[in-house]
Amino acid sequence: MPDSKPPLPPFTAETARRKVQAAEDAWNSRDPERVALAYTVDSQWRNRDVFLCGREAITEFLREKWRRELDYRLRKELWAYTDDRIAVRFEYEWHDAEGRWFRSYGNENWEFTPDGLMSKRYASVNDVPIAASERRLAPRCGPFA
Fold first, then answer.
1. Which positions, given as ranges, span the membrane (predicted)?
2. 46-76: per-residue pLDDT in tens?
3. What is the spatial distance between Cα 130 and Cα 22, in angstroms, rounded to a whole number?
4. Can you list the residues of the chain whose pLDDT is less than 70?
5. CATH 3.40.50.720 for domain 13-134
């Protein structure tokens, strides 16, 4: 399958963890096109109060997100899984153009097609202002370490 995205369902604890790590790595690249390739062309999203449908809309959403959320750094944690679904909790840190830092917390529910592409992503997110000195997810070495 040329458009497949391993690991493929049905998930085990190990393959679900690998899928979550792959998502974390892709999102930390801050490359909208790379991230969008993990989703079906007609993927359904809810991100906060925004509802999207399709890879093109996802790509544009991510471009705008990373124009606003600067120095974005994310951590995801596997919460639960079934044959073709994964739930994660996450936190990420970022700052706005004025230099104000935030930590965003949330949960996501994912559903996958047999080829490993995500067909549904529902995310609930809350932002908390933090001081730069309170950052926990700062890169250790270089921008993507």
1. none
2. 999 999 999 999 999 999 999 999 999 999 9
3. 27
4. 1-2, 140-145
5. no
Vertex 14, ends 8 and 20: CA angle to 5°?
70
Element (H, E) at 87: strand 85-95
Q: How far apart are the first and last CA of the chain?
A: 31
- Please list, in sequence order, all residues whose beta carbon lies within 8 angstroms of the beta carbon of residue 67, skipping any fewer than 6 positions away: none
Torsion angles phi and psi, residue 47, rounded to 5: -130, 105
CA dist 55 and 45 (Å) reads 10
C-beta separation of 108 from 121 below 8 A? yes
Domain ranges of the chain: 13-134
Q: What is the DSSP letter of 37?
A: T
pLDDT given for residue 1 in this prediction: 52
By the 8 A CB rule, do 26 and 38 touch?
Answer: yes
Residue 1, C-beta contacts closer than 8 angstroms, at least 6 positions apart: 115
Cα three-residue angle 58-28-142, rounded to 5 degrees:
150
